[in-house]
Write a structure and sequence with these properties.
heterodimer, A: about 260 residues, alpha/beta, TIM Barrel, 8-stranded parallel β-barrel, two-stranded antiparallel ribbon, B: about 210 residues, 6 helices, about 25% helix, about 30% strand, globular
């Protein structure tokens, strides 16, 4: 039986993780390669790197990070943030990432999904979606709208319709981020995650709101997510991946033990 | 030197990185002479069996691999490499290398999901277990609880159970590790399966088939 995946997410700016992480022994590390190694050893099933480098010129720094990570860890990892063209995708995949995630670029130009899927295979293309609850209205039948620019720009697109369109265009997976839940540590957006998971046939990674292992258990069962993204709850040493997995195991949720 | 066969099926560099990490020399090549002259041969791959076989034939790699098989040189197939060693694949009805009798078949997305909520998601993507059904030198040190990383829509169906070494459950029970003589192949990605994956890869790098 397939295991549910636990995926730490690392934000990288100009080659450094933005906040660094504080492990239980209070050592701070801001080097993404060291952090990748730490989570690999700790039993992460996959990693997500989000490049928040502002300028296009500094993208090469990220490619260098990807290359070093690929020489260090032997589990899948994806890279997102600032991927605009097929060439951006190719550079990241050639450097050793397993998958590449497109978000706002796909909203503006959906063809990037089909182009990427054709060139590299569906399994390489993750559709990242930032979503806000706006209530049902004309054009937004699901009540959830696609946003970009960290939630500041509303795109007038229905989240469910966009997820299904992304699948039809060839996305191999959806990383579903709730802007409302993001950073709250109050739990994932359950209704949203369940609605999308039940209506697409590709894996859905739930993102935004994780604060306790209970939140993960919830979204992986009631929310029907295939994987759960986590950040601060492990970055600051509140929980270890081992502790989270032990908790999920205790709830009869199948996870990989390492 | 270990030859990693380049037949246009992607992701060869990640296999090369894993082999280098284990301190073995390897070269990515599509030169038939370099492949038949190698100490060991790995043929990884993602994508479709049909187009993989087409590229193989164009580059004369199908004959090279058949020669390697006959010569008793240790060879390892990964993912699509585990499908093209069969007689044929359902994917575009492709004729394959015919080293293991049988064919590659597709998962059906009309099968019920493992959790009883909706249908089976295809491709089968993520970490799953391995039930060793027949011992093999490449499995030395592998634990019952070890899991491996899969990304595939097709799986091998050997005609004889003698060629099956490991199985995995995803909607159905399928052969996830197959082999014959000097040939071994895994449907899962050894280069993306953490330490248990590297262990099998290292076992292959030292394997002396009799």
């Amino acid at each position: 039986m397939l295991s549910k995946r636990i995926i730490p997410c690392l934000d990288v700016r100009e080659g450094k993780t933005t906040k660094g992480i504080k492990f239980k022994n209070n050592v701070e590390i801001g080097d993404p390669v060291e952090m990748a190694k730490f989570y690999y050893e700790a039993g992460a099933d996959e990693l997500v790197f989000y490049d928040i480098t502002a300028s296009h010129e500094k993208r090469d720094i990220m490619i260098d990070v990807v290359r070093k990570v690929a020489q260090t860890i032997f589990i899948p990892f994806s890279v997102g943030g600032g991927i605009r063209t097929l060439e951006d995708m190719r550079a990241v995949l050639l450097a050793g990432a397993e998958k590449v995630s497109v978000n706002s670029a796909a909203v503006k130009n959906p063809d990037i999904i089909s182009q990427g899927a054709r060139a590299f295979g569906n399994q390489c293309v993750v559709l990242g979606m930032d979503v806000k609850h706006v209530g049902q209205k004309t054009g937004i039948p699901s009540g959830y709208e696609i946003v970009i620019n960290g939630g500041r720009t509303f795109m007038g697109m229905d989240a469910l319709e966009w997820a299904q369109k992304g699948q039809a265009l060839g996305a191999g997976e959806i990383c579903l981020n709730s802007i409302d839940a993001d950073g709250t540590k109050d739990g994932y957006e359950m209704a949203l995650t369940r609605m999308i998971s039940e209506n697409v046939n590709i894996p859905v990674i739930a993102s935004g709101g994780a604060g306790t292992p209970e939140h993960l258990a919830d979204v992986l069962t009631r929310g029907r997510a295939d994987a759960a993204l986590i950040a601060s709850m492990v970055h600051f040493g509140t929980y270890t991946i081992e502790e989270i997995k032990a908790f999920l195991s205790g709830k009869d949720i199948k996870v990989r033990k390492s | 030197m270990i030859a990693i066969v380049d037949y246009g099926a992607g992701n060869l560099t990640s296999v090369a990185r894993a082999v280098s990490f284990l301190s073995y020399d390897c070269v990515i090549t599509d030169d038939p002479a370099q492949i038949t002259g190698a100490e060991r041969v790995i043929f990884p791959g993602v994508g479709a069996a049909g187009s993989a076989m087409e590229t193989m034939r164009e580059r004369g790699l199908d004959d090279a691999l058949k020669q390697v098989f006959k010569a008793g040189i240790p060879m390892l197939g990964i993912c699509v490499g585990c499908q093209i060693i069969m007689d044929s694949s359902q994917e575009n009805d492709a004729a394959c290398l015919g080293m293991i009798p049988g064919s590659a078949k597709a998962f059906s997305d009309t099968m019920p999901s493992e959790h009883g909520d909706g249908f089976l998601k295809v491709p089968h993507m993520g970490w799953n277990g391995l039930d060793v059904v027949r011992s093999h030198p490449l499995f030395e040190g592998v634990k019952k609880t070890d899991e491996f990383y899969f990304v595939h829509s097709y799986y091998p169906v050997p005609r004889s159970g003698d060629d099956v070494f490991g199985t995995t459950d995803y909607g159905i029970k399928f052969a996830s590790a197959v082999g014959k003589h000097n040939l071994f192949a895994t449907q899962f990605h050894l280069e993306k399966s953490g330490k248990p994956g590297l262990l099998i890869l290292e076992n292959f790098c030292r394997w002396a088939p009799c």
